[in-house]
Structure formats: C-alpha cells, structure tokens
Design goal:
38% of the residues lie in helices and 17% in strands. By secondary structure, it is of the alpha+beta class. A hairpin with an 8-residue loop joins strand 4 and strand 5. Helix 3 packs parallel to helix 7 and helix 5 crosses helix 8. The radius of gyration is 20 Å and the shape is globular.
Length: 295
C-alpha cells in the first residue's frame, strides 16, 4: 500500500476511497496505458451478498457495451474475479470490495443545476431505461426489487421491531393506510417492460458527473428491478423546494421524452413513486445503524 495513495470519499452503505497509483507503481506494471486513478468500494457488512454484487457488475457491463453509457467499470483481480472478500486485522468481519476505473467529471450542487443540465440528466436516465426494456436477465441474476417489496418486504417500517422503535401507533396506522393505497396504485400500473425493469435506484445529484457536454452516472449499488418513473424521483426530489420547480421538471422530462416516451398519466404516477421513495428512505433510516440518520 506504500505505492498507492488512498483518499477517503464517503461512508454510507459503502465506504469509498479514491486510489492513486504512484509513478513507481505504474512503471512496474507491464500493461500499457495504465490509468493512474481508481475507486475502491467497500461494501457494508450484510448489505449485499457477492452474487448480488456480481449481478450489478453484469448489468454495468451491458450498459457500457450495449447502450454505450459511461458507467463504472470494475477492474479484475489477478485471478480474474471482480468481487474480492477481504479481511483486515482489527476489522471484525470480512468485507466485499470492488475496484472501479476512475470516471472523470464534476459534481453539481442540486441548487446550481441548469435547465440544460437537467435535460441531459433526463436523457441519460431515459437511455438507461430504453436499454432496460430489452435487457434479458442472465441466469442466476439477482438484484433487489424496488416495488411493493419496499412496502411489505422484510425489515420494512411496518415490521415488528423496525418502525415501532421510532413511530407511534398512530403514525404506523397512517403508514399502513398509505402503503395499502400505494399497493393498489402499483397493481393498476402493472409491470410490463414499458414501465418496469432494471433501474439505477438512486439517481440523486451526488451520483452523476458532468464532463464537458457529457454526463456520467456512478454508484449503482442500489440498482434493481423497479419502475422507471421511480428512478426519476431522486433527482427531482432535491429540487421540489425551488420556486422554479415546474420549469426544472419540464426540462428534466423534456430531455427524457426526447429519448423515450411516457404514458399520458405519468405526472400522476410520479406522485405515487414519490411516496414509494419516501417509504424506502424511512425503511433505510430505521435499519441504518448510524444514529446520525435516525435523529
């Protein structure tokens, strides 16, 4: 490790470091044009088994090769595998790690996003969904479902020992009524390939980079099978407080529909998936061990 530089970037569901190779290390590598920068992602224990992480990487490969999207590219280890189980002295359990090639670009604070940039974000997400419509899940492909499972699956807000640690019986009754209505609405929407497939799952502004006239998406660790409109919620939820939100909404979906059309009632459906996202975040906080997120 003395020949690489590690720079801490974030710690939520994953711990992420930037890895910089030294000139000395690069000179030792026989492969030409070796990149100098990488991203090391260390998964939180119990978050996803290696099979699920492997499925994420398979989808990323399909997005790069079949849809020509700039998304994270894993680097194989010496044995050719991409997911490494690593144990370190002083750490109580092994961690699953993936090394990715560095993706260039810059983040934009959500309050500074221009209409043109939001249009580009919408177009990128639409390209991802257009690919998902025809993506055939490989054998043993395993990713979480971002549908009614968010509402009624294991470790959700209505499960004993989850929401009742933070909410009153009256609060939980409100959740129960809302969840029942959401299930009815999603049943009406259905799960055809026109509305449901592989999605990023967390398209918040912290997960896309601007590079020249291009946009690159990162952090697919929450990807799964879900509704395409649900995938649009994280981006726009950061902008709802803005007085010009409707203009930003129009820019985002204007870019989206340049690539992929939506149903006539997509605006009403969007509110359904905004509520679904809210329940997802409540579940996340209830199950997250860091008390900072529970206050």
């Amino acid at each position: 490790m003395s020949e690489v530089s590690l720079r801490f970037l974030s710690n939520t569901d994953n711990t992420v470091f930037r890895v910089d190779l030294t000139t000395q290390q690069i000179n030792k590598i026989k492969t030409p044009n070796v990149p100098r920068q990488y991203i090391l992602r260390i998964a939180r224990p119990g978050k996803y088994p290696p099979e699920m992480i492997g499925s994420e990487l398979l989808w990323l490969s399909a997005l790069r090769t079949q849809a020509s999207l700039v998304v994270p590219e894993p680097v194989p280890a010496a044995d050719g595998t991409f997911v490494q189980k690593v144990s370190v002295a002083g750490v109580p359990e092994p961690r699953h790690c993936v090394l990715f090639r560095w993706i260039p670009g810059r983040f934009r604070n959500h309050d500074l996003l221009t209409l043109k940039e939001l249009e580009r974000v919408g177009s990128f997400i639409a390209r991802l969904h257009r690919h998902a419509e025809t993506f055939v899940l490989p054998d043993k492909f395993d990713r979480p479902r971002l549908d009614e499972t968010i509402l009624l699956g294991e470790n959700t807000v209505l499960c004993p020992g989850v929401g009742d640690r933070f909410f009153s019986l009256r609060d939980l009754s409100v959740f129960e009524t809302g969840i029942r209505e959401l299930c009815t609405q999603m049943e009406q929407i259905g799960k055809s390939s026109e509305v449901f497939g592989m999605i990023h799952g967390d398209s918040q502004p912290a997960n896309f980079l601007f590079h020249g006239q291009n946009i690159h998406f990162i952090d697919f660790s929450d990807c799964g099978l879900g509704y395409y409109l649900y995938d649009c919620v994280p981006t726009l939820s950061y902008l709802r407080h803005r007085p010009d939100f409707q203009t930003q909404w129009s820019a985002f979906f204007g870019g989206y529909q340049k690539v992929r059309s939506l149903s006539a009632d997509y605006k009403a459906q969007f509110e359904t998936f905004t509520a679904l996202r809210t329940v997802f975040l409540v579940n996340w906080v209830c199950n997250w061990s860091n008390p900072v997120y529970q206050t």
